[in-house]
Amino acid sequence: MASLSAGTTLDGRYVVDRPIARGGMATVYRCVDARLGREVAAKVMHEQFVHDDVFRDRFRREARAMAQLSHPNLVNVYDFSASGGEVFLIMELITGGTLRELLAERGPMPPHAAAAVMRGMLTGLSVAHAKGMVHRDIKPDNVLIDASSRVKLSDFGLVRAAAETPQSTDQIVGTVAYLSPEQVDGSPITAASDVYSAGIVLFELLTGRTPFSGDTPLAHAYARLRADVPAPSSLIAGVPKLFDELVATATARNPRDRFHDASDFLAALDDVARELRLPAYTVPVPRNSAAHRAAEFPTNFGLAAGATASAASAGSARAAQQRLFPGDDAPTRVSPAAARPAQPAPTPSRGQWPAAAPGRGPAPVPAPAPQPRPQRPAGKPVSNRSAIGVALYTVVVIVVVVAVGLGAWWFGSGMYGEIPEIIVPRA
After folding, report:
1. Which H or E run contains 256?
2. Are strands 14-22 and 9-10 parallel, antiparallel or unpaired?
3. What pTM was computed for the model?
4. What's the domain of life for this entry (predicted)?
5. Which of the listed residues 276, 308, 343 is the one where a domain comes to its end?
6. Residue 268 — φ and ψ, nearest 5°?
């Protein structure tokens, strides 16, 4: 799969800087909007899907859906193009990371942290549900955390208007671990389907794992038709029973037994938070996210003026890509495990989560350690004078000293000394 190089211009306006993340359908690049001079994210469809009408329609649907939705808990979309050889979506640049990356860094969340994440996600999802839209792909990968710790819902590529989707097809669409039962068995899909997926996300936030598994993706998908989601407290200590009830209601196998939509789920979550007196909490920004690693490389704003990327700039972008996407041929999405040296999987422990402390500031930056002064090597002293210069300087000094000495003698005794009288006898 070919990647766009630094300096490539999309639609004569958006200049590619470097890649941020990659999925099975598209790659996200950090770009500069040459017209407005701002950084944006370009979600560019992979070239093997450009001429596929199904995928083009999905891209177009995502653009239209997100353009209709405006809320601080949703990722903003600015532009869309399906003309020419590139199909892309221009959207808000998020420099934080994904909820998936945060879970990989810290493991299961305590109740107050999980509530803070779910509150932001459900707030954004409720805006979509109020517009009659069903997201159909709720999962931690599609929940972003920006640099100011705001939770944002993204990736509406599978969104459908509820009225347009009375029944599923024989093709399962979505991510297996988070599918609702009706997405698997072909029952009508409603906002309650997103509620089920959001309940799975809450289960994963509390326990660090998803509830079902299977030897094959199909077996994994069908597992939710035969069993209920277990109580989170049965897998990890410290989960209040009220959270068990939240998960049980959200993930009921019968859609009529669930919360009606995201706003109902959010109201129940707020009731539980008040009952348990959970403190307000600022969701931390992932430190090892792909977006954060991309932000370590400064944007070449000179590209915004339309200048051609230099070889050094292109080399820097290639280096960034290798750092972000080691093993570039693998068509999988970026995850911390793939982008960093292998680390042990997080155990179901909340030790990496600090106690609730809203408004925590960044950790102080330690003062740099004193550096030893460079030592000169022993031996001949270093001088910026040449040997000829030194010799000429010495000769000049000697001449001056001799001249001064002669002058002193002449004026002191030679010129004004007494001359003895000479008497010449007469003949």
Report:
1. none
2. antiparallel
3. 0.70
4. Bacteria
5. 276
6. -65, -40
